[in-house]
Amino acid sequence: MGKRVALVLAGCGVFDGSEIHEASAALVKIFAPSIEQRDVVNHLKGSPTDEKRNVLVESARLARGNIQDLAELEASEFDAVIFPGGFGVAKNLCSWAVDGKNCTVNEHVRSTLQAFHSAKKPIGLCCISPVLAAKVFPGCEVTVGQDKNVDGRFPDAETASAIAELGCKHICKNVNESHVDKANKIVTTCAFMCKAPLHEIFDGIGTMVQEVLKLA
C-alpha cells in the first residue's frame, strides 16, 4: 500500500498563494485553510488588486476541485504532510511576510504541524514554508538554501538568519538537495528561494518527497 500524504496549500499562485510548480511536483491528498487571503496579486503585473479571495477556493484551482478544509485534516489518517512554498505561505498560513520572525501562525496550520510532529510522522516543507517549522518547533533544523546571497542566486538569504534567531539551526544546502532533521522528522528544501533552472528546483523537491516517504 502506498503512503498517505497530505498536501497543504496556501492559495493559487506564487505571489499570493502556493507556488504552482512546487505544488504540482508533490500533488497528493490536498487541504487548505478556509480563510481570506491577505492580498490578491495580479500575476501579470505583479501588483496587488482590490479583490478579495478565499484560500481554500483558490487552492481548489490547483486541486481540480478535489480539496478539503484544513480544519478537517486528521493526522491519524495520513503517514506524512507536505507544505509547498509561495508567498501565500508567508501571507496566509502565517504572517512572516509582514512580521518576520515575530509572525503568528494560522491556528489550523499550527495544530496540523503539531499533530504530525506529536505522532512522529514526517513533515516536508519547501521554499519559504520551512519558517513554519522554525516558528512552531524551536530547536529544529531546516534549510531555505544558503545564508549568504551566493552569486546572486539567494536574494532572500537573510531568512536563514531570522530562522537562527528563532533558536533553530539553519543548514546550508544547494537547490537540488534537501535536509533531513531526523530527530523531528522534518525534511526541507529551498526550491524557489534559489534562482535556479526549473529542473534543479524539481530535483530538490524530489529529494524532499523521497526523504519524507522514507521516514513515513
* Helix coverage percent: 25-40%
Question: What's the helix-strand series?
Answer: EHEEEHEEHHHEHEHEEEH
Report low-confidence residues grouped into runs of 5 or more.
Answer: none
Strand order of the largest sheet: 5-2-1-6-7-11-10
The major sheet is characterized as: 7 strands, mixed
In total, how many beta strands?
11
Decide which structural class fits the backbone. alpha/beta
Strand content: 15-25%
Protein name: GAL3A protein
Organism: Eudyptula minor (Little blue penguin)
Q: What does this protein look like?
A:
- InterPro entries: Class_I_gatase-like.
- This is GAL3A protein.
- By secondary structure, the chain is an alpha/beta fold.
- 32% of the residues lie in helices and 16% in strands.
- The protein is built from 8 helices and 11 strands.
- It has helices spanning 20-24, 55-62, 87-93, 96-99, 107-118, 130-136, 158-165, 198-215; strands at residues 5-8, 29-32, 41-42, 47-48, 67-69, 80-83, 123-126, 141-142, 169-170, 179-181, 186-189.
- The strands form 3 sheets. Strands 5-2-1-6-7-11-10 form a 7-stranded mixed beta sheet, sandwiched between helices.
- Strand 8, helix 7 (158-165) and strand 9 form a beta-alpha-beta unit.
- The longest helix is centred in the C-terminal third of the chain and has 18 residues, at 198-215.
- The protein is globular and about 40 Å long.
- The two termini are 12 Å apart.
- The relative contact order is 0.16.
- The model has no long low-confidence stretch (mean pLDDT 96).
